[in-house]
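Q: Got a minute? One more chain.
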Amino acid sequence: MVSAPKRAAKPARAAVPAWLSTPLLWAAAGAAWLAALAAWAGPESLAWAARQGLFLLQAVGAAAALWLLPGLALLRWLWPGRLAGLMRLAVALCAGLALPPLGLLLFDLAGLPWNRWVTLGYVAAAALALVLRSSSARPRPRGAARAASAWPALALAGLSLLAVIGRLYFVRNLPVGLWGDSYHHTLMAQLLVDNQGLFTTWLPYAPLATFTYHFGFHGNVALFHWLTGLPVTQCVVVVGQLLSAATLPAAYALIAWLSRSQAAGLWAALLTGFINIQPAYYYNWGRYPQLTGQVLLAAVVITWLAALERPRLGWRPVLLAAALTAGLLLTHYIVSIFAAMFLALYLLARLLRRPALSEAGHLALGGAAIGGLALVLAAPWLANTLSGFLVRNAAGFVNGGVDAARIAGYATLTPIPPLMLKSYLMALGAAGFLIAVARRAWRVALLAAWAGLMLLAVVPYLVGLPGSGVIDSFVVYIALYLPVVPLAGYALGMGQRWAERWARRPVLAAAGAALVAGSVWGYGWQLDHLYAPEHQLFTPADARAVDWIKANTPAEALFFVNVFPAYGGTLIAGSDGGWWLPLLAGRATNLPPLTYGSERGLEAGFAERVNGLAEAMRGRPLTDKTPVALDLTTPDNFARLAEAGYDYVYSGAHAQPGPAEADHINVDALYGRPDLFHVVYVQDGVTIFGLGPAP
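A: Always. Here it is, folded:
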């Protein structure tokens, strides 16, 4: 017999009695929340939110239309049994992220374009599917039961909305996303829009001929653009921040499902959104695809468990879990591995409990059915990855094709810094694990094993396994909040449950006040400390320079921009706004998107030529990280520029890494050779030189 099949489908017990869920009390709590925010965090962000009310409504409405509405329709048709209202909303929001990449892949296979009208049809079809299925749904609870269950929903909604306001306030003045990853993510989203779906060639922005990168985030950005009409550059930032806020309901759903505790879910949402630095800090790096996968991961885990904990396999729960798993495979390859780790631990734990033979067969058949169907759904894209160099690059870490020094740099576990995971949250997570063990809540305890397995993936050589370097410590460290913070929320939730036995009403009131106080403190702290200006490569000064370039240089002009060696000297990256010129100014440069290392060029040897020019200009191998002040006035370097057909040299307003840490163009040397270079633009830190003497 399958263990606890009914328990898997039971909604979490209402966290509060009906007396605590009256409209008057809700209004008073909301007013106190706003007053505390204004007093602690200052009224500026709230005033901004009031001024930008229509924009916020548009952003939240688009997210609801693209993710929540289709997710609810999907659950209505495929979820096995009844799912409590708040859990249904949280899971639906996460699950909705899987559908756009699946839809884009399906349309590509059918040779059909995806555009604004298809997006509107997609939303309308989701609404119709939800309405048709809702007519046969069970009656909703009424009276006191409904009022009692509304309070946790309002608390989670308030936390999530506050996170949305704070996250969007962070990025209110950004012309484009931060750091280097934002460039190729924006480029891929723009190419999806330009091509009305999946593409191969990266023209006119880069001479690349394959597209093998995971595209779930970019597909969601494209649909957001088609629905709202906002520029893709803005959509990347807005969608990324909306996903950052979505980590709150994702954290709630994961631990509330595993523990059957709404209180643990609310604490986990608070800690994820306002106390720990990650994942709110992701926007400084532009790590939005990984964030998308991690939000979707919560729904993947929950749907797998819901399917496997039923007495009998049904085609609907199997299809639901498989579809979301396939969506995750299209969204982020490494996060898919993280999900597989947890599911493997879950299956192993079930088998170690010495189930009956029929139950073991049930698990094997269910896992094979879900996993096999997911692979079938994602197979066209997984086969497509073979067309580029992505698989080759990953295989290099397994078969020794990557040098030992580079592997050592990736496959090393250093102490976890507070930027990744705060020490007191790790301690609280450890307490949550011990409580789970004491209570025999083995599903919750699996989170600790999951964290350990994620860390082991960085250093598989410790247990004699190959693949060191495939998953580096940075990728794992910024994802450790996934298992650890829910464990911390579980510890607080169980502590609250214990205290409620002695004084229920005061404890519930104190818990509500703590949620408000924690969110207010975290909101104000984040406004002051999360933005790292050194990560802004493209500044408003660069945006003005782009306008000048488009108006004053020919479309075929070729620009030489700042680059420095990255990824162990295998690639070059940009250190200022010059990286964005192909996308924003329509002008070619010496610097392609970072994906040139995993995609094929239009011509053989493209990556080698890109790296070769950079290496020749700096006069030393790319593996030598010693910073170089590139002197473009030397006879050899100037000859290389002229021979390659460069017309201009671009030095941006802000270089990161700075001159002391990475290569940079020696602007003073260019000023000193008016016979070789002449200034055509100088403003707010941006300098553009033309090759040759002034006309």
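A: Residues 16-387+394-533 form one domain.
Q: Perfect, thanks.
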